Amino acid sequence: MNISFKAQLLILFFSSVLQGAEPIYMLNASYDPTRELYQDMNTAFRTHWKSTHPQDITIRQSHGGSGKQARAVIDGLEADVVTLGLAYDIDAIAAHSKLLPKNWQSRLPHHSTPYTSTIVFLVRKGNPKHIRDWDDLIKPGVSVITPNPKTSGGARWNYLAAWGYALKKYNNDPVKAKAFVQKLFKNVPVLDSGARGATTTFLERGIGDVLIAWENEAYLAVEKSGKERVAIVAPSVSILAEPPVTVVDQIVDKHKTRQLAEAYVNFLYTQEAQKIALKHHFRPTDAQMFSVHKKSFTAVDVFTIDDVFGGWAKAQKTHFSDGGTFDQIYQ
Amino acid sequence: MNNPTTEPLWVKWGLLTLALAFLFCFLFIPLIMIFIRAFSEGLGLYWASLRDPEALSAMKLTLYAILVSVPLNTFFGICAAWLITKFQFRGKQLLLSLIDLPFTISPVISGLMFVLLFGSRGFFGPWLIDHGCSIVFHTPGIILVTTFVTFPFVARELIPLMQSQGSDEEIAAMTLGANGWQTFTRVTLPNIQWGLVYGIVLCTARAAGEFGAVSVVSGHIQGLTNTLPLHIEILYNEYNFTAAFAVSSLMVLAALLTLILKQYIEWKTER
Hints:
The complex is a heterodimer. Chain A has 16 helices and eleven strands. Chain A is α/β, with parallel strands linked by helices. Chain B contains 13 helices and no strands.
């Protein structure tokens, strides 16, 4: 009796060591700039879930560069839900593992994108280098901070936004566009692996004259470090950044969390969640809500990746695969 | 006349000032800065950041990693040192270099090695995961890489010590009729105890502080697979600078206490 009790205790101890002993638990693997967004989303969803189910749930978060997170999920990070920076990273999970079907993006409204964003500039107090548009980033003596497109989703949006601007400027001449982006990257002193790392480089380490960043990340940076230190500059055109979400089928089936995970991603489209997105400076995909709050976002003309680059698969192959345009210009 | 065995006064004082100034700039000021930043928003926030559930879970995980890796490495470190210094065999040099391997390869590569072995597309991973035993991105993975990275500390500390001592005393004990265990506990262990303590202290410090390798296999799941160093990085990235430095100050304090404890034990036994 005594021995079996001790043995039980021991088993309990080791199982709690190994498993973390949580009753209902779900993991959301996300990209860098959504830390604050999902803290609020998770709190709201917990309350929402409890109103219909008599259960306490724990949603854990894991954050990192979007590409790195996709890699981790492929290598065995058991995320029930992925909310990454761009569709290609989830495509990569589908391509390199059997975790979710290839048609995942058609399962939820708006290409599985509950909120969008765009790419803007963050400059230092008083804008001493007079940065107004993409043209100013290729001037000599301007130091530009952007993360590494090989690992960061945000960096890929940055890159494509610059490329899209150049295409427009030079009447769709890809050679001139490439020269433009090459000049821009000549001005980049350091490539961080994720968007948040780049923001910290710009704000805390004080490197660079301009940070190319997610719009939401730029607003957050202004909030955190104060209007007197940095300011947002909207370029004339930019890209509509669509960070999609999906349930990871094999993982939710293994964890028996499908119902919870599906409720979670659907919750992101509700009025309540769209308001939280708004609060964190993500553009709600709820058209009516966006038009009401249009003023709280930068005024910038956006183009989509489908229009200018023919979708992520094509853009990834041309620009970010080994030997793609990024490898050619950044050596 | 200058005494040939002493230096002129200005050399003595000059060197002393230089050394102290260097220590002050490169050791003292950075350490003090951590504490200033940690307490910059008052004791209340300092205390709150240490009692945050995610901080507590990071402490717990770091403690588990230490509790598993240090005893294992102490045991195997003593075995390896014993084997290498008291016996002659072929391939001894090779074994000696292999022990150093975790020191010489980059921590990132150590981490990736375990992902390649135990990841869901790795060598053993698929089979293990099918049998309900996930390693990478779970606690076992973190313990495993910590053990790997800290493996050389005890052995590396003991080998030169035991080499310089030779095996004469052990041979004497054997001739007087002691068996292997008696020889080890009564002759070898007392001789190496300070080297051993020092090895354990270094091993513990590294196990608590390892970042690179652990970062690769962690998956950064908040409240589950973040060790203290990873938690500090996350806090910093979340603009929680005060909390980041509060947790850092805790690690610095633990490190200082360990060193003081080591000094104290040494001083006690020398008397």
